[in-house]
Amino acid sequence: MARSKSKHRRVQNKIKQKWKRQFKRKAAKAAEGAKK
After folding, report:
1. Which string of b and e fits 5-22 if b means at least 16 CB within 10 Å?
2. Angle at 25 between CA 11 and CA 22, to 5 degrees
3. 1-36: per-residue pLDDT in tens?
4. Three-state SS letters, 1-36
5. pTM score, whole prediction
6. How far apart are CA 32 and CA 30, in angstroms?
7. What is the pLDDT, as a whole number, of residue 2?
8. How far is CA 8 from CA 4, 5, 27, in A?
């Protein structure tokens, strides 16, 4: 049971990192647009 729980947490972390990366990319693009 603990094993499956840790696996689930790992998957959630992966998804979180993906979202963070996309958010950073969007933020960077927005910053560039604001500069221009």
Report:
1. eeeeeeeeeeeeeeeeee
2. 25
3. 567 788 889 999 999 999 999 999 999 998 888 877
4. CHHHHHHHHHHHHHHHHHHHHHHHHHHHHHHHHHHC
5. 0.54
6. 5
7. 65
8. 6, 5, 28
